């Protein structure tokens, strides 16, 4: 039995830590603190330079819903072409219509541009109208993976749907559990649901190297400190990888 561990990262250091910990691949993003957005070229090239990991790149032009206008879709097409030319292994994306179903026309266009890159449907799946309709749509598009929390805030909360999706997919597409994944959850979640891949950040919060600090000035969301850095921990990834390895050997 093969079980994959994918780590979502938004910095070179996090990607290095993911590799140290034994990740199979990374989902490369920008701005994980808001759920992830498309990363830039420089981040991709630096992660490729300093790691040997398989790299799937998130394609999400902004924070918020997954229903994009013509300008945003044009950006997504340009980014897809860029990532293909840079040598990304895969693309992680999702576009919805206002009725909550996949925008098949736009998805087909992105997959056409992606060419030989594998494609994964991200957690746009979790806010889609009907998970089983979306499952079949993703399969019909030839996508390799669905990343999902079972349409709940965490994969453990969504375990019943995850189990049903694994059964319904019948090996036609990889069901990867994401949201709230940790070494403590994996031993219960994997055997219960039958998922064959797990997705996690393994993050810790590090203190800024800044000595001088200006209090009372926020650059983004209120309540988030400008002097805390989110970074993947190799130890957290290593522990999760070891747990998954035990299942593979069982």
From TrEMBL:
Top-level taxon of origin: Bacteria
Keywords, in A-Z order: Cytoplasm
Transmembrane portions of the chain: none
Keyword Cytoplasm: yes
InterPro entries to which the protein is assigned, alphabetical: CutC-like
Location(s) in or outside the cell: Cytoplasm
Principal location: cytoplasm
Recorded family membership: Belongs to the CutC family.
Protein name as annotated: PF03932 family protein CutC
Species this chain originates from: Faecalicatena faecalis
Chain's gene name: cutC
């Amino acid at each position: 039995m093969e079980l994959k561990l994918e780590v979502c990262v938004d910095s070179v250091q996090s990607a290095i830590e993911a590799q140290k910990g034994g990740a199979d691949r990374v989902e490369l993003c920008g701005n994980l603190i808001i759920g992830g957005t498309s990363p830039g070229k420089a981040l991709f090239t630096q992660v490729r330079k300093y790691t040997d990991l398989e790299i799937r790149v998130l394609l999400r032009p902004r924070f918020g819903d997954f229903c994009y206008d013509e300008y945003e879709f044009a950006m997504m097409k340009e980014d897809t072409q860029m990532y293909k030319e840079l040598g990304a292994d895969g693309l992680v994306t999702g576009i919805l219509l206002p009725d909550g179903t996949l925008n098949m026309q736009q998805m087909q266009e992105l997959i056409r541009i992606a060419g030989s890159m594998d494609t994964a449907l991200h957690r746009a799946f979790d806010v889609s109208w009907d998970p089983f309709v979306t499952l079949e749509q993703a399969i019909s598009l030839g996508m390799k993976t669905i990343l999902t929390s079972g349409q709940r805030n965490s994969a453990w909360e969504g375990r019943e749907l995850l189990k049903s999706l694994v059964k319904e997919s019948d090996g036609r597409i990889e069901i990867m559990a994401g949201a709230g994944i940790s070494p403590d959850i994996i031993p219960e979640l994997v055997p219960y649901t039958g998922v064959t891949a797990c997705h996690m950040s393994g993050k810790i919060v590090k203190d800024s190297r800044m000595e001088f600090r200006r209090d009372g000035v926020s650059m983004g969301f209120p309540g988030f400190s400008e002097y805390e850095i989110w970074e993947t921990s190799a130890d957290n990834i290593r522990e999760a990888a070891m747990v998954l390895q035990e299942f593979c050997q069982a």
